[in-house]
TrEMBL record:
Keywords: Cell membrane, Membrane, Transmembrane, Transmembrane helix. It comes from the Bacteria. The chain crosses the membrane at residues 29-56, 62-84, 96-118, 124-142, 178-197, 226-250, 262-287, 299-324. Pfam families: BPD_transp_2 (PF02653). It is found in: Cell membrane. The keyword Ribonucleoprotein does not apply. Coiled coil: none annotated. It comes from Bradyrhizobium brasilense. It is a multi-pass membrane protein. PANTHER family: ABC TRANSPORTER ATP-BINDING PROTEIN (PTHR30482:SF17), HIGH-AFFINITY BRANCHED-CHAIN AMINO ACID TRANSPORT SYSTEM PERMEASE (PTHR30482). This is Branched-chain amino acid ABC transporter permease.
Length: 328
């Protein structure tokens, strides 16, 4: 009996040490997975889409998973980043790196505007206010036809080569395109890891767990919520900018509330409040979409049924549930 107890203790210690190692080096592990990821996918364009939507979900997860606020307006942040990146290239002739910076700045600015108006609300009211403001952004870009192309979307975002430290990379080549985008995604994961490991990251989770106690401890809850929402906008703006470069077009649908709903589904599927969960959710959803849509035009019905099954059997999301079971 004593031997069995010692064995269980040793097993738990081993699991704990591995979990601690994975947590400490989580960004490096994500980077290693991303570098080999295109070798596991049926085609490179799918791998690129997973990276972009995974990054979009990572930004959303900062607000939803770590802060505990459900937003239905993140399409505005994602779409603004895409549009400003595209506008910088098409209308002003900016180089690709400056256009990406414009996309990030657009996400930050839009998050600041929406956050100032919505952050004082709670629960379902916050979700509804963010959705309403996101739809305002949708119609704003829809009406600005000269800049955005209106219902036809913004076209002509042609980036054929990437000039980097004297090197000219063929951005049309699928593998080069993947690794250029992967470099930004990996950098974003390292930044996110640093945010979560910082004292501010601990404050974010403290506000989620017990807002009154966090306020009693001297933290400004409102400013914490606003800053977290703005940081989320930066990640989503970067994802939108990369999407614009990847597609060479920004469709108006990128700002629709369906895009906000999609990221909620991805975060729930992968595991909200987990570091790698959003990327798992994006991979599972987009792979299912691509595989099932080949068989039937009613792919949404099948994917929806699979999503319901995942919610029932993986209540903390796929990655979140696996982590919880691994800790036992």
């Amino acid at each position: 009996m004593t031997g069995a107890t010692e064995s269980v203790k040793q097993s738990r210690a081993t699991t704990g040490s591995w979990y601690e190692f994975a947590t400490r080096h989580r960004a490096s592990i994500v980077a290693a997975v991303i570098l080999i990821f295109p070798l596991l996918m049926p085609f490179t364009a799918l791998a690129v889409n997973i990276l972009i939507y995974g990054l979009y979900a990572v930004g959303f997860n900062l607000v939803f998973g770590y802060l505990g606020l459900l937003s239905f307006g993140h399409a505005a942040l994602f779409g603004t980043g895409a549009y400003l990146c595209g506008i910088a290239i098409v209308h002003f002739g900016w180089p690709w790196y400056a256009a990406i910076a414009a996309g990030i700045a657009g996400g930050l600015l839009m998050a600041s505007l929406i956050g100032v108006l919505a952050i004082r609300t709670r629960g379902i009211y916050f979700a509804m206010v963010t959705m309403a403001l996101s739809q305002c952004v949708y119609y704003l870009f829809y009406q600005a036809v000269d800049l955005t192309g209106g219902e036809n979307g913004l076209r002509g975002i042609n980036v054929r080569t990437i000039d980097l430290f004297g090197l000219r990379l063929d951005f049309i080549n699928p593998m080069i395109r993947y690794y250029v985008i992967a470099a930004f995604v990996i950098a974003a994961f390292f930044v996110m890891s640093r945010i979560l490991a910082s004292p501010f990251g601990a404050v974010i989770e403290a506000v989620r767990e017990n807002e009154m106690r966090a306020r009693a401890s001297g933290y400004d809850v409102t400013k914490t919520r606003l800053l977290t929402f703005v940081l989320s906008g930066g990640f989503c703006g970067l994802a939108g900018a990369l999407q614009a470069l990847h597609l060479s077009i920004v469709p108006i649908e990128i700002l629709h509330y369906e895009t906000s709903g999609l990221v909620v589904m991805i975060a729930l599927l992968g595991g909200m409040g987990t570091f790698f969960g959003p990327m798992i959710g994006a991979a599972v959803f987009l792979v299912l979409e691509n595989v099932v849509s080949v068989w039937t035009v009613h792919w949404q019905l099948i994917v929806g049924a699979i999503f319901i099954a995942c919610v029932l059997f993986f209540p903390a999301g796929i990655w979140g549930t696996l982590i919880a079971r691994g800790r036992r």
